[in-house]
């Protein structure tokens, strides 16, 4: 019922920047918390950054001071500005959205993932 489309991934040199976007569409009704996670093949999916509907943010220690999460509620979109990228940031990044349907049911959806590769 809700689709998350991610964009902005790619290949950059160490120290470079990327901006990821995740746009929600469909039967959204109301979006609450949104976040970015990353997961390498065979590894667990870990939180990178999250943001509440009131713009309260949370970051993994490894990205604090380098990454910034933000959202545009009018566009149903969450962003991740990634600066000072390191080779260790290389993996697939996933968008997550939590919300409530018009009937009052909570939901959670994941995007399909976007690849970020940082060369040394």
Q: What is the number of helical segments per DSSP (H or I, 4+ residues)?
A: 0
The fraction of residues in strands falls at over 45%
Give the oligomer, counting copies of the same chain as homo and different chains as hetero. Answer: single chain
Helix content: under 10%
Q: How would you sum up the major sheet?
A: 7 strands, mixed
How far the N terminus sits from the C terminus, by CA atoms, comes to 40 Å
Mean pLDDT: 96
Which segments are poorly predicted (pLDDT under 50) over 5 or more consecutive residues? none
Structural class estimated from helices and strands: mainly beta
* Basic shape: elongated
SSE sequence, one letter per element = EEEEEEEEEEE
| Count of DSSP strands | 11
What features would you describe in this structure?
The protein is mainly beta and 120 residues long. Helix content is 0%, strand content 59%. The chain is built from no helices and eleven strands. The strands form two sheets. Strands 2, 4, 5, 6, 9, 10 and 11 form a seven-stranded mixed beta sheet that branches. Strands 1-3-8-7 form a four-stranded antiparallel beta sheet, with no helix packed on it. A hairpin with a 4-residue loop joins β7 and β8 (77-82). The protein is elongated, with a radius of gyration of 14 Å. It starts with a strand and ends with a strand. The mean pLDDT is 96.
In short:
The protein has 120 residues and is mainly β.
